[in-house]
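[step 3/7] fold_predict: job queued, chain A
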Amino acid sequence: MEMKKVALILPILLLLLGFALPNTAMAHTEGDPFVTDLIAGGGNPASAIDVGDVIVWNDADYLYVKYVITEPDWCLIETHLHVDTSWQTIPQKNGNPIPGHFDYSMEHECVTEYTYEIPQTWVDGDTLYIAAHAVVMDTSCYQTAILYGIERYNGKVYGVDVLTGTSWEIFDNIPPPPEGSATPNGLAYDGVNGRFYYTNYQNTPYTLYFWEAATNTEYVAGYIAGHVAGADFWDGKYYYITGPPPTDDLWEVEFNTDGTIASNTKVDDIANNEHGWTFNGDIAVKDGVVYGWGLCGMSGHGYEFFTYDIATKAFSFVKPSYQQSLQLTFGSNGVLYGHRSGGAGAFYVVDTTTGGVTLVTPTPCPVRLYTDCASGMICEPIIETAWGFGTGFPGKNWATYITYGWEWSERWPETGTAYIGYEDWTGGDFDYNDFGMSMVVTEIYSSDGIEEIDIRCQGLVKLAGWHHKIHIKMTDSVTAYVHLEEWDKTETTQYRSDDYTFTTGEIDVLLFDDTATDVGHITTVHIAFEDPVDLTMAPPYDPYIWVYNTGLTYHIDDTQSKTMPAGTADLPYILVVPVTWLPPAEQRSIWTVYGYFDDYYVSGSPADWYDTYTGPNPTVPYVPYP
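[step 4/7] structure written:
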């Protein structure tokens, strides 16, 4: 038989023996994926940062594209993904991709990883072009919760980091305003200009002061509408509610560039004069909403937590279960806190919907009681666009795409393993147990051919008196690099670790050097081709046997004629069946144990002859594997 015919005969033979032709699956697996960097801010090389990875792999049904953030404090807030067989068909204008038009997109609440699962619709061997875009955010500013407070009785203003539990003095108020248990008050922080505003609470005339960091000096800003204990700064304006006497009057102060008052305007009676606060609390403002905590003048209401939308004038309130005075303030992390200016000076996280409070532990040290608190400069995290690193689009921006070779693997056999049994002499007993081994082959393909091959064999049985060497051969002339390892059956003791280079002629590798000692041994072979190849032989290739005692060699396509009960047929020296099949005992011809064997080789059926044991019972017809 000519060797070229083996490539045609073996698939047919394997179908007849019940082996399914292999399906395909990606060579890039979740455990061994394609990985490229996720680059943020790449338009400027000086500011570009590797914030993570884009990881790509496949199984038989899906392409997986996973975004993973590895840089501390960064996260994903948007991802956009497009996969195509040409970079030119990725949505773009003038060579600049348009992420909003990509096939896949998702908004995220600051996550560190996200995976797209894309159904496999491509042809084996296609090259894919993957545009992996993301919007990423640096959350490091959220690692602190800075706010400010005026210490009771001495008027010193401190910065407080609620998350780290630290505080530090910023400046010491010099009267006026006077210092006392409740004055100065109405503290608010203008972070843009580095100014702290505060009032001479319970003193007249009603005066607003500010301290400026740049000059380390206190100034009079101007006059306001009444006593102010509840105030905050937002959008360049100072908001306050007057009281006592109890009111629901919200005022807005705008400033000149030098920090003095330009206008002082009443915004609204925010509760239609139905509520009035003494104030015994505070307000904090964020994103145009006033959050308040105050002792209501209405009978039975006690302390209220309320909200007022400056734009829509929507007002709501609840009576929280916590019924103590709280100084409200937003930390720089955007979280609403309440400070108890009494007792242990505790801080609480305040739920902006329900008014429920949760104790912050530990309490910032040293413990101080703050007459009033001011919101910190609300964190504005850095937001950058990011792309999976690859080839640049031709447009003016710095967007890139990934080129992903659509590799796949074919496993032989499709499931389980194969048993390869040998007859080591002509006119033998046809028990196919002179030596037997298992084999699994994985071929890794690209569009250009086979890139790599992995082979795993284990010696299972050896009942012949003669000794042998077992090789595996591929008849194609290729350049290949081979790594072989031989281990004991537990893969804890290594017997061989060899490397070979084949530059001309056939690939021929020694799997087992002496079958007398190699039962149970496991041999693995990894073959990497210099260039993709199209092999003329299919798995199991040619796992031939060389017999020490006779010096003879028998190959996969060698046969000998034998007359059996069903007739005469050419039988192979090397038999390939599923490993679940067990060979006959020594000198027991195979057709006496598997009664349909001779029918198959004489007439071609049944193909599953190896599934039917017809030998005498209860005699075990085979020797168990190691």
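[step 5/7] annotate
Residues 1-26, 617-621 have pLDDT under 50 and may be disordered.
The first helix runs from residue 6 to 16.
exit 0
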